[in-house]
Design a protein that fits this description.
The chain is of the alpha/beta class and 423 residues long. The chain contains 14 helices and eleven strands. Helix 5 packs antiparallel against helix 13, helix 12 crosses helix 13 and helix 13 runs antiparallel to helix 14. Bound molecules: zinc ion (ZN) (2 copies).
Length: 423
């Protein structure tokens, strides 16, 4: 407990009066079979002090030259690359059925701007002014018309103004989508268009992406030192939740992921003996922000089946977008608590993680924004944390008006309400 408290301070020493983060508010990370922390239990934790001296960290400064966050909306599809349209449709679903029946389309970039404005409170967040466009690369337009791998183009082009970057293309190894695009090539484009006044930028893509020859796919990645991140929408499409072997249990996404019976059942399958909940744990689970989150999440009533899926899609992407931008603030994967900055090894693990930052990760972002950018001292950082909670609550409430609320946002709103009382 004391070492986690020390991880929150810039000095690395535990404060004289240790703040009591109730486990009812900040539970420990879930470590279930196949989860990321299971594979890498010795990964070095990054304390706030360690983060401060991270070499690749870009410091925010009070000069407004370089303090904006940019969101680049998904590239449009130029007429020469029209064949790319069906690459975003999961295999086995035809485009007409998906669009017609479910009415699904990836969430608009404006929602991410709104969300990040609250999540990175006080940072100016802007939509990237000039959209990118997919186009053909070289003379492969003709052969690219088909979608079978035999006729798949090797490359496509991603253009911005008069620049065009070559993007590698391959068939998806697990066949969830007809085609995947290379992440590193897209990151190169992002680096080449980074505005001078950007602190960081996230580029959204509709298509499935991959990073290396031996991965199946990659959901998103940040090059923190270079200030850029790329996040794909395709793999978060809730249509994929029913896939054989990848099935997502929608009744146990956050906040329900912390339900003890669910955790025990998963461990039982893997022959891990579950510990009986300690008396103190049981006591605490009757109150606190997690309890409030679970109660609030249950109040969500989708207005239609399409609304539910559309909002679910946005909530998953939003969590990833803020997570990847967290890496641009030089935040490492979090091992201290259940946290939005936890690493994740699968989509099933992803949906179990919370949308909030734990006290350690929050302390880092508070130092960057309220401390470095706004030249604030400790009191100002504490005040900023409160204001940030309020901004996120307003965001959650506004989502209802836009018909974009989901159980996760209801849960977060309930969690924040309790947290603010504690603050
Ligand atoms: Zn990460
Ligand atoms: Zn954390």
């Amino acid at each position: 407990m004391a070492s986690r408290a020390a991880a929150e301070t810039t000095s690395g020493r535990a404060p004289k009066s240790v703040k009591d983060h109730s486990i009812g508010t900040f539970p420990a990370p879930l470590v279930l079979p196949h989860d990321e922390l299971n594979y890498d239990p010795d990964s070095e934790p990054q304390s706030t002090k360690g983060w401060l001296s991270e070499e690749c960290r870009n410091k925010l400064s009070s000069a407004p030259r370089r303090n904006k966050l940019y969101v680049v909306q998904v590239p449009g599809i130029g007429f020469k690359a029209d064949f790319m349209r069906h690459w975003v449709v999961p295999s086995g679903y035809d485009a007409v059925k998906v669009e017609g029946k479910a009415g699904l389309s990836p969430p608009s970039a404006d929602h991410f701007v709104d969300y990040l404005t609250a999540f990175y409170h006080d940072m100016p967040v802007r939509l990237f002014p000039t959209p990118l466009t997919w186009t053909s690369w070289g003379s492969n337009t003709k052969s690219a018309m088909g979608c079978r791998s035999a006729t798949l183009p090797k490359y496509i082009g991603l253009s911005h103004g008069d620049q065009c970057t070559r993007i590698r293309v391959r068939p998806a190894p697990d066949k969830a989508f007809p085609v995947q695009l290379n992440l590193d090539d897209i990151l190169d484009t992002a680096i080449s268009i980074l505005p001078d006044d950007a602190y960081a930028m996230v580029l959204l893509v509709d298509h499935d992406i991959y990073e290396s020859d031996d991965d199946d796919f990659c959901c998103g990645r940040a090059y923190g030192g270079s200030r850029v991140a790329v996040v794909q929408a395709a793999r978060y499409n809730p249509i994929l939740d029913e896939r054989e072997g990848e099935k997502i249990d929608r009744s146990h996404m956050w906040p329900w992921s912390h339900c003890k019976t669910f955790v025990d059942d998963l461990c039982a399958v893997e022959d891990v003996k579950a510990k009986a909940a300690a008396k103190k744990q049981k006591e605490l689970s009757k109150s606190g922000a997690m309890k409030a989150a679970i109660q609030a999440a249950a109040t969500y009533k989708p207005t239609s089946a399409v609304q539910e899926v559309q909002a679910l899609w946005f909530s998953r992407l939003a969590r990833t977008v803020s997570h990847e931008l967290g890496h641009c603030f030089a935040l490492d994967h979090c091992v201290y608590y259940a946290c939005n900055m936890q690493g994740t090894g699968s989509m099933r693990e992803d949906v179990r993680q919370p949308p909030y930052l734990c006290p350690v990760c929050e302390a880092k972002v508070a130092h960057a924004i309220a401390g470095e950018m706004k030249s604030g001292r400790e009191e100002e950082k504490t005040e900023w944390i409160k204001q940030r909670c309020e901004a996120l609550r307003h965001f959650c409430e506004r989502l209802g008006e836009k018909d974009m609320d989901s159980s996760m946002w209801h849960g977060l709103d309930g969690w924040l309400q309790e947290r603010m009382i504690a603050l």
